[in-house]
Amino acid sequence: MKTKMPITWLAAGLLSAATMGSAWAEYPERPVTMIVAYSAGGGTDVAARTLAPYIEEHLGQSITVLNRPGAGGEIGFTALAQADPDGYTFGFINIPNMLAIPIQREARYSLEDIDPVAQIVYDAGALSVRSDSDITSLEELVAEAKANPGTVTYGTTGIGSDDHLAVLSFERKAGIELRHIPFPGAADLRAATLGGHITMASMNISESVDDMEAGNLHILGQMAEERWENAPEVPTFQELGYDVVMGSHRGIGAPAGMPEAVFETLSGAVTKAVADPEFQEKSMQQGLPLAFQGPEAFGSQLETLNAELKELWEEQPWSQNQ
């Protein structure tokens, strides 16, 4: 048996809904915070602060960039996931770091706690050797690794980094075994490669292209679906027969559960900001490999990569893989 709602309750409900709709329609009414899970001055921070003024312009409110570094990004990602989903807090998210942390240890957030707003940058992984190396192609690298398992050395910026996970994925698909040498940062990794102390470097393509153009390094391949316009002569791993797409994805994420109207307003402002010619020019000057994706495409990519990383962890737990 259905009961009738008292007229006063119905009127109050309609008034409340109208008031809430009006409030969201006026979003944003106050300054907004952008969380960056890494230290000020780093690559992620620079990208975030470069983009922020253009989001401000299209959002109509000022944005405060708040650095919350620590625990490989977990502190900042947790702060983002636990923020009120009211549109006044969003953040830069780094992939695969954000995905890898809950896979390799118990974390205070999960992928489901953060809604993807947009991918801004995709800095593909790349394998580079000294220009005078005997290895001149990915095919020769695979042949050498199969002939001498565990003797070909590669450097990365650390265990569990996108550089490291990229090579683990490649090893798995190529059926080879390489020897990992982790370094504290890209500068140390570059020096070791140029000094001939390791066979090759696993670095992002943007970190390798200058040395390639200077004749110091030869890039064997880039782990992207399409060749980066700043390195059009470097083939992708897919072109060479290895379905490896891995690198550093940097984008915008928001606490899950944001009202649809607010999410669309924020997403629209980010989309317009990335398309701004002035931002595009600044990104080119900084060597940022822009690769914009909207919420659906970015979200689908995160789901796919998350599943791949879980499968990789089951076979090769990278925290135990030196």
Question: Can you walk through the features of this model?
Answer:
The protein has 11 helices and 10 strands. By secondary structure, the protein is an alpha/beta fold. Strand 1, helix 2 (43-59) and strand 2 (63-67) form a beta-alpha-beta unit. Helix 2 crosses helix 9 and helix 4 packs parallel to helix 11.
Q: What would you call the shape?
A: globular
CATH class of the largest domain, named: Alpha Beta
The H/E string reads HEHEHEHEHEHEHEHEEHHEH
For this structure, the CATH topology of the largest domain is D-Maltodextrin-Binding Protein, domain 2
Percent of residues in β-strands: 15-25%
Helix content: 40-55%
Number of strands: 10
Mean pLDDT: 90
Largest sheet: 10 strands, mixed
Architecture of the largest domain, CATH level 2?
Answer: 3-Layer(aba) Sandwich
Q: CA-to-CA gap between the ends?
A: 67 Å
Number of helices: 11
Overall structural domain count:
2
Q: Spans of 5+ residues with little confidence (pLDDT < 50)?
A: 1-24
Structural class: alpha/beta
Q: Over the alpha carbons, how many angstroms does the gyration radius reach?
A: 22 Å
The CATH homologous superfamily of the largest domain is called Bordetella uptake gene, domain 1
